[in-house]
Design a protein that fits this description.
Number of strands: 19
Largest sheet: 6 strands, parallel
Number of helices: 14
Bound molecules: S-adenosyl-L-homocysteine, iron/sulfur cluster, FE3-S4 cluster
Distance between the termini: 52 Å
Shape: globular
Strand order of the largest sheet: 2-1-3-4-5-6
CATH class of the largest domain: Alpha Beta
Structural class: alpha/beta
Mean pLDDT: 92
Strand content: 15-25%
Function: Catalyzes the methylthiolation of N6-(dimethylallyl)adenosine (i(6)A), leading to the formation of 2-methylthio-N6-(dimethylallyl)adenosine (ms(2)i(6)A) at position 37 in tRNAs that read codons beginning with uridine.
Pfam families: Radical_SAM (PF04055), TRAM (PF01938), UPF0004 (PF00919)
Keywords: 4Fe-4S, Cytoplasm, Iron, Iron-sulfur, Metal-binding, S-adenosyl-L-methionine, Transferase, tRNA processing
Radius of gyration: 23 Å
Low-confidence stretches: 461-477
CATH topology of the largest domain: Rossmann fold
EC number: 2.8.4.3
CATH architecture of the largest domain: 3-Layer(aba) Sandwich
InterPro entries: Elp3/MiaA/NifB-like_rSAM, Methylthiotransferase, Methylthiotransferase_CS, Methylthiotransferase_N, Methylthiotransferase_N_sf, MiaB_methiolase, rSAM, rSAM_horseshoe
Number of domains: 4
Length: 477
């Protein structure tokens, strides 16, 4: 191991990037890099970028500008690497636009970071002769997950009782607005056993809740020990069986891949949280077809109804795009109508952003900014009202929360409800990582607060022995 150096990683975009950032940090920890939470004292800065919308992609350049200015002012020597989806999409362009960058590395090559950094360092110091900057955006044949380092126990402990695990990467759906199939490549599922190994390791380090992630997570079809493809329902079941794991979630799903078994898993597995993020994008069949979403609004309603039947206390969240090319007032009214019919506990909504290389960017009927703004304003007002109503309806309800971290004031902890709401309670720090039964007392826009009625820590039982009490079981403390 070489001398200790400091690493600062900043992630933009989705949970896949959060997970990747952890794997990069773990891999570089082996090379002697320790994490710092400020770019100012870092020897190496990694910007882990997102290309999904123009605004997200542009952030990297403003961030790089800021870094360069800070470097100049402080006379600092610092390596800068750009990773993530902008790296994949723009490659050498980044080096042209931002001189501060030493290395551009795409998401499929993170396992090569140690050698790439050594090479970039050599080029920087002129030892390698050539001064050209390094760009690595190939899709290598080997699976990066086989080479990325797992987290140490200490790293797991520091990251808290919830963890993401990437189980599937890439996308074959090719929605006409989306860059993901280009930046992350074709859909690949990790083998079941490797995911379980990772989950066991995390559970051993104190993790209680696993969120299985993938751009198209319910298209998961990783091979099991017998070489047969396992589906997401099977994976969820196996993960829930790992001792110590009390809660399982998965994201992001595509409506087309919500199969019978996965819906049944919501009925049969109390550990599978009753909260489903199911992006629909639009409520207009005309627009859904132009987006190449491969389903109509009727199928979405049908899935929602079936999942609700399987798990009556389930809540939905979703993603929406307004102002897709050709979207008429009527199409938009269909989206508002769909939202009204389904009722969402929370949602993300975006103005359509034309992305280079995607079919929709070249479509006729691109809409002016003021139309997009008016529509997003109306949609978000409706979604905000629904979220407020959902939160309000939680007042007086009792459910298990997973205590995750200290709150703002001494004696407070923050946990998460089954619906991912932040819940503030009074509890000692030692209770972090345990499930507590809580009655919700107060509701505000950002969080809920409640009284603890009981739970693993409070009953004095060790973690792992207490089975998760499904919220629908209406257990009285
Ligand atoms: N795989 C997920 C979404 C990944 S991207 C799915 O199938 O839904 C996350 C969200 O970003 C999308 O759901 C969509 O709402 C939004 N998004 C993607 N491309 C966009 C674009 N060009 N303009 C605006 N929003 C976009
Ligand atoms: Fe993008 Fe569509 Fe794939 Fe989701 S399903 S990642 S929106 S192409
Ligand atoms: Fe962004 Fe790439 Fe995720 S484009 S949303 S970081 S897959």
């Amino acid at each position: 191991m070489s001398e200790q150096r400091k690493l600062y990683v900043r992630s933009f975009g989705c949970q896949m990037n959060v997970y990747d950032a952890q794997r990069m940090t773990d891999t570089l920890a082996r090379e002697g890099y320790v994490e710092t939470d400020s770019p100012d004292d870092a020897d190496l800065v990694i910007l882990n970028t997102c290309h999904i919308r123009e605004k997200a992609a542009e952030k990297v350049y403003s961030e790089l500008g800021r870094l360069r200015k800070a470097q100049e002012e402080a006379g600092r020597q610092q390596m800068v690497a750009v990773a993530g989806c902008v790296a994949q999409a723009e490659g050498a362009e980044i080096i042209k636009r931002a001189r501060a960058v030493d290395l551009v590395v795409g998401p499929q090559s993170y396992h090569k970071l140690p050698e790439l950094l050594a090479e970039a360092e050599a080029r920087r110091s002129g030892k390698a002769g050539a001064r050209a900057k390094l760009v690595e955006t190939e899709f290598p044949v080997e699976d990066k997950f086989d080479f990325l380092a797992p987290p140490t126990r200490e790293a797991i402990g520091k990251r808290g009782p919830t963890a993401f695990v990437t189980v599937q990467e890439g996308c074959d759906k090719f929605c006409t607005f989306c860059v993901v199939p280009y930046t992350r490549g074709a859909e690949v599922s990790r083998p079941l056993a490797k995911i379980l190994d990772e989950v066991i390791r995390l559970a051993d380090g104190g993790v209680r809740e696993i969120t299985l992630i993938g751009q198209n997570v319910n298209a998961y079809h990783g091979l099991d020990a017998a070489g047969r493809p396992a589906n997401l329902a099977e994976l969820v079941r196996r993960v829930a069986e790992v001792p110590g794991i009390a809660r399982v979630r998965y994201t992001t799903s595509h409506p087309r891949d919500m199969d019978e078994e996965l819906i049944a898993a919501h009925r049969d597995m109390p550990a599978l949280m009753p909260y489903l993020h199911l992006p629909v994008q639009s409520g207009s069949n005309r627009i859904l077809a132009a987006m190449n979403r491969k389903h109509d609004r009727e199928l979405f309603f049908e899935i929602v109804a079936r999942v609700r039947e399987a798990r009556p206390d389930i809540a939905f969240s979703s993603d929406f795009i307004v102002g897709f090319p050709g979207e008429s007032d009527e199409d938009f009214a269909d989206t508002m109508d769909l939202v009204g019919r389904v009722g969402f506990a929370s949602a993300f909504s975006f103005k359509y952003s034309p992305r280079p290389g995607t079919p929709a960017a070249g479509m006729e009927g691109q809409l002016p900014e003021d139309v997009k703004s008016a529509r997003i304003y109306a949609l978000q007002a409706l979604l905000d009202r629904q979220k407020a109503a959902f939160d309000e309806a939680c007042r007086g309800r009792r459910f298990d929360i997973l205590l995750e971290k200290p709150g703002r004031f001494p004696g407070q902890l923050i946990g998460r409800s089954p619906y991912l709401q932040s819940v503030v309670v009074e509890a000692p720090r030692e209770a972090i990582g345990t499930l507590a039964r809580v009655e919700v007392r107060e509701v505000s826009t950002k969080s809920l607060s409640g009284d603890i009625l009981g739970g693993e820590f409070f009953a004095g039982r060790p973690i792992g022995e207490t089975r998760f009490i499904g919220q629908s079981e209406k257990l009285e403390a």
